[in-house]
Amino acid sequence: MPRGNWIVTPDKFLTSSQVETLRRSLQTQTSTGNQYAIRNAAMIELLLGSGLRVSELCSLVVGDLFLDPGSSNLLVRRGKGGKTRLVAISEALARYLSRYLKWKETVGQSVEAASPLFLSERGCGMHRSAVHRVWKLVLEAAGLPTRHGVHATRHSYAVEVYRRTRDLRLTQRLLGHSSPNTTQVYASLLDDDVRRGVEAIWAA
To answer: Are 57 and 43 in contact (CB under 8 A)?
Structure first.
């Protein structure tokens, strides 16, 4: 993640209502049974629910999913800087991914441990450029601004985790940041003391 004076501005992540709009749109698209719509929805749900970088998503294989109830995790083998980490995921996302794996079997896709979790139209693993294209398509279909890059899923995840927990160390761990200074940008964005101060000024 960039250093220096870089900050997370509102145009770099989706609001909670925008995420809900996107998810409703994805549900509508998958209801058609189109295999690419189902794959796309699973990719976006995983990004929104884990905060993975796109490169980390593309590297996932079936064996990187540990979906046991009560202890569901994703293994990121080739994170930034070549680091490996375990990312905890919610039970809801784990159930979603379990259904996705069952769907892969029904359409003849391999669920062997070494098989790519997400397949391209050519039957190989997804590339980052392809995920970026998918992201723009699903945003457009949902009627959301396409100015957001797919990295907005990671920022949206981080903002939501910090908003709900106010735990900077936990947010840092889940995102795989080596320094808490990088994670601090999310705390600054949601600083309630700053917001209260601004409201007090305008109320005066």
So the answer is: yes
Tell me if residue 177 is catalytic.
Answer: yes
Give the bridge partners for 125, in sequence order: 119
Instruction: Give the pair of three-digit tokens for residue 46.
Output: 């995983």
Q: Which of 100, 157, 162, 186 is catalytic?
A: 186
Q: Give 88-147 as a DSSP string.
A: E--HHHHHHHHHHHHHHHHTT---STTSBSSB-TTSSB--HHHHHHHHHHHHHHTT--TT
Q: Is the pLDDT of residue 2 over 60?
A: no
Catalytic residue among 53, 104, 148, 155: 53
pLDDT digits over 39-97, tens only? Answer: 999 999 999 998 899 999 999 999 999 998 888 999 998 666 677 888 889 899 999 99
- 162 token code pair: 């910090």
53 catalytic per annotation: yes
